[in-house]
Amino acid sequence: MSAQPLPYKLIATDLDGTLLRHDETVSERTRAALTAATAAGAAHIVVTGRSVPWTRHILDALDYRGLAVCGQGAQVYHAGEHRLLTSVTLDRQLAGLALSKIEAETGPLYLAASRDGLEGEVLVGPGYRVQEGPLPNVMIDDPAELWSAPLNKVYLQHPTLDDDSLARSAREVAGDLVGVVVAGHGIVELLPLGLTKATGLSLAARRLGVKAADTIAFGDMPNDLAMFAWAARGVAMGNAHDELKAVADEITASNEDDGIAVVLERLYLS
User: Fold this and answer.
1) How far from chain centre, in Å, is Cα 16?
2) Contact assessment for residue 96 and residue 110, using Cβ atoms and an 8 Å cutoff
3) Are 238 and 252 in contact (CB under 8 A)?
4) Do residues 72 and 183 lie in contact, with contact meaning Cβ atoms separated by under 8 Å?
5) Which residues are CB-neighbours of 23 under 8 A, at least 6 positions away?
6) DSSP reduced 3-state for 103
7) How far apart are CA 168 and CA 178, in angstroms?
8) What is the mean pLDDT of residues 223-244?
9) φ, ψ for residue 32 (rounded to 5)?
10) Which of 88, 127, 223, 231 would bridge 181 by S-S if both were Cys, CB 3.0 to 4.6 A apart?
């Protein structure tokens, strides 16, 4: 008897709000489902908005040795070798022009920025609200410091506008200069124009010899939209943003309720 063909050769999972629970752990059930899928021959790739320095400790804790797509697609990282394979940086001149146009529309913004590289620091300017947790950052007093070295992305916050409204305004006035994504609660990012998670995922998939038609993707935020469009199947978590749920092929349980495992068990263990 011939072996059953794999339902999908590649499983792409976002981290926050998807693979990770709120306490930044992966449940035993989800680990077991991923282990079973990879034992059957599928590959698993983490695809996250976090840059490598904010992702590496999680991958190490998971004993994850494969490729990871970080920085919204800007970085392809080999977790087993602790090596950056590709990196795309934000044109700082264009980003500065984009910010001027956005602030002319919205008023002053609070800013942070992620520096390029394996050890790239996240610089946090005055007023920017950093989420509680273990992720390292460097507080700065002078916003000019944000621009002193190559960057992956710039983070925006507004005193009163919500994330969706801020992103919409930024796209309207500066969408021809930079990419704009909502990557999480309180996280609106400016990226190199045209860069998405799909950019990095397609590069990583090519290294593995896997095509979009062989890929199932899991996510929870609008920054996963391009990944869903690229993959053969997009699965939104139960806790996902409405914008992602609207285009998903399937909506599973939340990240707290093993939503990834629910789908993988059906596909690979039934």
Assistant:
1) 8
2) no
3) yes
4) yes
5) none
6) helix
7) 13
8) 98
9) -65, -40
10) 223
Which one-letter amino acid corresponds to residue 115? R
Query: Which pair of tokens denotes residue 142?
Result: 């002078």
SS (H, E, C) the chain: CCCCCCCCCEEEECHHHHHCCCCCCCCHHHHHHHHHHHHCCCEEEEECCCCHHHHHHHHHHCCCCCEEEEHHHCEEEECCCCEEEEECCECHHHHHHHHHHHHHHHCCCEEEEEECCCCCCEEECCCCCCCCCCCCCEECCCHHHHHCCCEEEEEEECCCCCHHHHHHHHHHHHCCCEEEEEEECCEEEEEECCCCHHHHHHHHHHHHCCCHHHEEEEECCHHHHHHHHHCCEEEECCCCCHHHHCCCCEECCCHHHCHHHHHHHHHHHC
Which has the closest alpha carbon to 69: 6, 1, 19? 19
* 180 three-state secondary structure: strand
Half-sphere exposure of 216 (CA within 13 A, CB side): 22
Tens digit of each residue's pLDDT (9 = 90 or more) over 82-140: 999 999 999 999 999 999 999 999 999 999 999 999 999 999 999 999 987 667 899 99
Confidence of residue 33 (pLDDT cuts 50, 70, 90): very high
pTM for the whole thing?
A: 0.94
Size (the chain), residues: 270
State the pLDDT confidence band at 1, using cuts at 50, 70 and 90: very low
Share of the chain above pLDDT 70, in %: 98
Provide the residue type at 175 as one letter.
G
What gap in Å lies between CA 53 and CA 49, rounded to an integer? 12
- Beta carbons within 8 Å of 72's beta carbon, 6+ residues apart: 49, 152, 153, 179, 181, 183, 189, 191, 195, 196, 197, 200, 223
pLDDT score recorded for residue 4? 67
